[in-house]
């Protein structure tokens, strides 16, 4: 696939659709999972929990069970013809450990369906784009506090899943770091994961022609500098059409983060819009990846050419 290629759109959800909840990354608190399942049931969805969602790795407590079990849960859910969407329970860390254990041919043969998640799930967004050619949704996860306690996050994800034509324009809460308009295909996610994916067979070779969405959490400013510099030195940002910046929670005072982003990204000569309200933040918006769109950094808008889902 070329980096800026528009991807296949899965079908939207309808009342009664079955959604599988999986945990490809970190361990999941049961009470938060149950609260998230209640929200999904309130949308008249039929959520089913994969067998190992509540597991915890016996040696590495930051993983939700073994690599093999996490991979088996994801693959089984994706290849189940009765499942219409797969929603991740939470992020953390772990996707990169189990990506090689997935049968990508079998998952491709299963046909398109919806994948939802963010943070560590960035590695799956990239893999699904490269290996399956599918639009995915960078959005809140079933057991996330930011989902359970946020009416706006719930409302925007629900609209994206059921009536995507109603949320074709996303609005920024900030200003333009670099004004201008740009067109491209949306992609991106968590900065640390994009940097960590460089050189793997599950990441696109560059963001050329794309509208790149970036965010992160809990990273000191010098670490953000290192990730951005790594992407720049690797040539991954050459030819990018524009950038949308989401949340930078717990990454230090925003003035310092903003100065770094301007320093590292301002020289690309493309529009850069900040505070777009996606990622590790309250009331996070859902952003589809793999859809052609237009960014107006000055107006703080991202307008999709077509709804995220068919």
Give a short synopsis of this structure.
The chain is α/β, with parallel strands linked by helices.
Classification by helices and strands = alpha/beta
Spatial ordering of strands, largest sheet = 6-14-13-8-9-10-11-7
Runs in which pLDDT lies below 50 for 5 or more consecutive residues are none
Number of beta strands: 14
Q: What is the gyration radius calculated from CA atoms?
A: 18 Å
Describe, in plain words, how this protein is organized in 3D.
This protein has 310 residues and is of the alpha/beta class. It has ten helices and 14 strands. It has an eight-stranded mixed beta sheet with strand order 6-14-13-8-9-10-11-7. Strands 2-1-3-4-5-12 form a six-stranded mixed beta sheet, with helices on both faces. α8 runs parallel beside α9. The model has no long low-confidence stretch (mean pLDDT 96).
Annotation keywords:
310 residues; alpha/beta; eight-stranded mixed sheet; six-stranded mixed sheet; 14 strands; 31% helix; 21% strand; globular
């Amino acid at each position: 696939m070329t980096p800026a290629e528009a991807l296949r759109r899965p079908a939207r959800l309808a009342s009664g659709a079955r959604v599988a909840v999986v945990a490809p990354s970190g361990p999941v608190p049961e009470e938060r999972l149950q609260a998230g399942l209640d929200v999904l049931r309130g949308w008249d969805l039929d959520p089913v929990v994969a067998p190992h969602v509540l597991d915890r790795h016996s040696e590495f407590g930051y993983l939700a069970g073994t690599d093999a079990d996490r991979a088996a849960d994801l693959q089984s859910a994706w290849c189940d013809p009765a499942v219409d969407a797969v929603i991740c329970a939470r992020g953390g860390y772990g996707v990169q450990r189990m990506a090689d254990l997935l049968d990508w041919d079998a998952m491709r043969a299963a046909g398109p369906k919806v994948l939802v998640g963010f943070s560590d799930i960035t590695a799956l967004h990239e893999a699904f784009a490269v290996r399956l050619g599918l639009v995915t949704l960078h959005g809140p996860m079933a057991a996330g506090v930011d989902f359970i306690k946020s009416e706006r996050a719930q409302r925007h994800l629900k609209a994206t899943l059921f009536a995507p034509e109603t949320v074709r324009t996303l609005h920024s809460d900030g200003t333009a770091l670099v004004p201008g308009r740009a067109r491209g295909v949306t992609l991106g996610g968590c900065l640390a994961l994009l940097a960590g994916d460089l050189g793997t067979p599950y990441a696109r070779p560059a963001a050329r022609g794309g509208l790149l969405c970036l965010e992160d959490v809990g990273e000191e400013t010098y670490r953000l500098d290192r990730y951005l510099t790594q992407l720049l030195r690797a040539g991954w940002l050459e030819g990018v059409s524009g950038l949308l910046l989401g949340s930078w929670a717990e990454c230090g005072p925003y003035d310092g983060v903003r100065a770094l982003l301007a320093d590292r990204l301002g020289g690309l000569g493309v529009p850069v819009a900040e505070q777009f309200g996606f990622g590790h933040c309250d009331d996070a918006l859902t952003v589809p990846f793999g859809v052609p769109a237009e960014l107006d950094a000055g107006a703080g808008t991202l307008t999709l050419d077509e709804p995220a889902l068919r």
